[in-house]
């Protein structure tokens, strides 16, 4: 899962959780508000009940009932009840039931709010008040209560949430979209970071630079320092390779001179042995120098394969072997490989020289890409190399003939391997095809 998708999912979950909590809180607040309004309305109705009390021949009665018709309809949802010195009086809506008020102590004029079961089992919101009756009403104390079913309150809460739900859904979509936009803008520099690193790898850029957000500048600076360290190490490696070549050149020349003197003295066998040893040492040195140079430069190297091939063919066409041949270059413009131009020229040059030496009429240099690799091929129409000798020539650095075919293959193979690639030999329609697979 990508970082962007992880953050988007986390943000969406957080938004949904926050909106869920908000919906729960709004529902609770709305319910509390509706209940407060209901209690305020019942307080007015309770005042109306108390104001309608009169004492008649039969005792304390309610001469004026509240105007709401639900008090008169059996189980109509609104109820009143008075418990006084003359007994219990209740609204017609209670029918043959009574409010089961809790046995609590109220001060004069004190109010209590209860939730009690109603006459039909419905929950009731009850407002209770204790009053002291005046002498005109016979004196004493009375408990008056007004109740209403909470069904209407619950229905109001449900309707409120039903009306609120579309707006919460729209808010969730807007917040999620804003989160996606924020992620896209915030994480865009990471895509640029990957693109710049790819450009460094392909050789289209030399440094990360400083044009990065503050959070990414330390990363870019560390990469630039790493590149600088690698370049310095590459320079030291090339210097060591040059020193090695220079240091071995004189001893090898001395050995060849000693072999020549022995040959002049008539010791042909000993001279040939020294010459073979010196040539083997030179091949080994050339191979290891090629490996050292290529490995030191392969990390940040890049070369245009067509440009290198064109320069190489231009040189070979001026040689006796290359001047008699028809050279064809079928390499797309802009084909780049992760190899230093000098190393690519050396590898292609070794293969092209062998092809020129053995070709009859033509040599073709071509290239194609395949899953992150560039396949460079050099095809000639010469006699080729027997299949049973090809692996030995590359692996053991042998020689196909006295002209040095094996040495050229060995150098090309070492350069390709040091760059992370490989050299393969295969049959052509008429001749041999050498393929360099390079990143």
UniProtKB/TrEMBL annotation:
Catalytic reaction(s) noted: ATP + protein L-histidine = ADP + protein N-phospho-L-histidine
Highest taxon in the source lineage: Bacteria
Keyword Transmembrane helix in annotation: yes
Cellular-component GO terms for this entry: plasma membrane
GO MF, one annotated term: protein histidine kinase activity
Residue ranges annotated for the Histidine kinase domain, each copy included: 243-439
Subcellular location: Membrane
Keyword terms of this UniProt record: Kinase, Membrane, Phosphoprotein, Transferase, Transmembrane, Transmembrane helix
Pfam family, one: HATPase_c
GO biological process: phosphorelay signal transduction system
The protein's Enzyme Commission number: 2.7.13.3
Name of the molecule in the record: histidine kinase
Origin species: Roseovarius gahaiensis
């Amino acid at each position: 899962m990508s970082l962007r998708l992880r953050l988007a999912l986390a943000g969406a979950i957080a938004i949904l959780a926050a909106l869920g909590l908000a919906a729960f809180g709004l529902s609770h607040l709305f319910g509390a508000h509706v209940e407060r309004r209901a209690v305020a309305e019942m307080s007015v109705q309770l005042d109306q009940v108390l104001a309608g009390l009169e004492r008649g021949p039969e005792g304390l009665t309610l001469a004026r009932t509240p105007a709401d018709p639900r008090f008169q309809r059996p189980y109509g949802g609104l109820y009143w009840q008075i418990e006084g010195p003359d007994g219990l009086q209740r609204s017609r809506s209670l029918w043959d039931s009574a409010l089961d008020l809790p046995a609590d102590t109220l001060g004069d004029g004190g109010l209590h709010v209860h939730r009690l079961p109603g006459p039909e089992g419905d929950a009731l919101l009850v407002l209770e008040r204790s009053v002291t009756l005046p002498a005109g009403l016979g004196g004493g104390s009375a408990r008056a209560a007004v109740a209403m079913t909470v069904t209407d309150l619950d229905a109001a809460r449900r309707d409120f949430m039903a009306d609120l739900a579309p707006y919460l859904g729209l808010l969730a979509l807007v917040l999620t979209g804003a989160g996606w936009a924020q992620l896209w803008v915030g994480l865009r520099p990471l895509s640029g970071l990957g693109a710049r690193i790819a450009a460094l790898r392909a050789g289209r850029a030399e440094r990360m630079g400083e044009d990065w957000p503050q959070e990414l500048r330390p990363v870019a600076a560390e990469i630039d320092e790493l590149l600088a360290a690698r370049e310095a190490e590459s320079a030291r490696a090339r210097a060591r390779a040059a020193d090695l070549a220079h240091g071995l050149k004189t001893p090898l020349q001395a050995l060849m001179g000693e072999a020549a003197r022995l040959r002049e003295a008539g010791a042909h066998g000993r001279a040939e042995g020294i010459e073979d040893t010196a040539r083997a040492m030179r091949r080994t040195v050339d191979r290891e120098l090629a490996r050292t140079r290529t490995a030191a430069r392969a990390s940040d190297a890049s070369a245009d394969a067509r440009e290198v091939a064109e320069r190489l063919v231009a040189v070979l066409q001026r040689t006796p072997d290359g001047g008699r041949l028809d050279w064809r270059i079928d390499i797309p413009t802009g084909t780049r490989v992760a190899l230093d131009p000098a190393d690519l020229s050396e590898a292609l040059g070794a293969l092209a020289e062998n092809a020129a030496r053995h070709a009859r009429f033509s040599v073709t240099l071509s290239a194609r890409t395949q899953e992150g690799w560039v396949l460079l091929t050099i095809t000639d129409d010469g006699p080729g190399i027997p299949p049973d000798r090809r692996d030995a020539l590359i692996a053991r650095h042998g020689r196909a003939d006295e002209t040095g075919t094996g040495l050229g293959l060995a150098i090309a193979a070492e350069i390709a391997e040091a760059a992370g690639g490989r050299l393969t030999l295969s049959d052509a329609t008429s001749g041999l095809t050498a393929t360099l697979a390079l990143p």
